[in-house]
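Milestone M4 deliverable, item 7.
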Amino acid sequence: METMELHHAPEGLIETNVGDYPGITNFEDVKAVFFVESTKLWSIASPIAFNILCNYAINSFTNIFVGHLGDLELSAVAISLSVISNFSFGFLLGMASALETLCGQAFGAGQVDMLGVYMQRSWIILLGACVCLMPFYIYSEPILILLGQEPDIAKLAGIFTIQSIPQMFSLAINFPTQKFLQAQSRVGILAWLGFIALIIHVMILVLFIRVLGWGTTGAAAAYSISAWGIALSQVVYVVVWCKEGWRGLSWLAFKDLWAFVKLSFASAVMLCLEVWYFMTLIVLTGHLDNPVIAVGSLSICMNVNGWEGMLFIGINAAISVRVSNELGSGHPRAAKYCVIVTVVESLIIGIISAGIILIAKDDFAVIFTDSKEMQKAVSKLASLLGITMILNSVQPVISGVAVGGGWQGLVAYINLFCYYIIGLPFGFLLGYKWGYRVQGIWTGMIFGTVLQTAILLYIIYKTNWNKEVEQASERMRKWTGEELEISTNRN
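Output delivered:
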């Protein structure tokens, strides 16, 4: 195996990236590795993060426009987007994240032709999952009432949720196509499509809400139109411009669907336990006194946290691509070093983000609401938001490593223990039994996140990356060997 020489200029490292790193022996080697890995990481993460930030901004601007209609509209749409939409978003994104393992490792191993087959297989599975999720949308009002939301909030949230069903189905096309492009580092187009969709979405919101006066119905229509615009644009790009990886529609997409469902479901459970964790924070807050202010203020904090979170989901996707590509290529040191560099840089970003929030704690809520009472409630939660932003800078990176290495099942068990056996009960005690209200619920859940992050950091520290390369090779033999043989025989 060829190796990269670490004792030359960093520029030379980028040009000679044809093998694994040799061992690090001095500080110059450390600087060179950080330079090379930072360049590789951000060349992938920046466009992905920008695309995801644009997609999240579609949600955020929907909240902003609706928030200026009134506190009830803000709380209702925030509940719909934070609970029901996040429920489906987390599940479908988790199902699609199986492609990050398979497509990333297949691309690293040179099995590019299989990427299109995996994407089509994921389309089929995710469309079926959308059908299964539809009852949660149709019966969202009684579900929210059952969860303890105020009837007025639940009624308006239920109407908005039903009107948002087309947006959910767009994710079944969007996510697999996105993972297909990410595995090949074709991420620039994602950034452009996200930016164009955001601009068009704001224009549609102005037309539907400000000009035509359609209220929350106009917001739901704009939400779905923008989502389908992104999904279909990505498909057009794949079909027209991605000659490598896309060989047209294939019957192989229907082969081994059940095995693919099981892998996708493991990925979904891992991610859903993370996404739903903070969704539960919104639900628990709805049981407190004065729920409009409690839910609204927390939703604003979660919205701001989501802006940072979308950046780290981009980094999550990038580290998943890097780890899976390097494991598929048989480069254990490169996989290890890219993890270390990414964790360090992400933590720095998280600390800076928390500092900005603490400085602007009395002012940033004005973006979302004109209510002085709501702004004051948000200010009281700013310190907890800052802590959460620091934790969220590391945790998504670790999850990306898990997806890239195919550890979804293990992480799902860890998430279940830390979040739902430790964090949620502790938050319930602090918030309800000991009277700390929103701050108590949130503090308990932060404790669960701290525990989960510490356990995963220890696992990564103890990981044998040579063994991970062997497991990646075995996974590729299992998933691509027989299928390529069938495809060759048919041709």
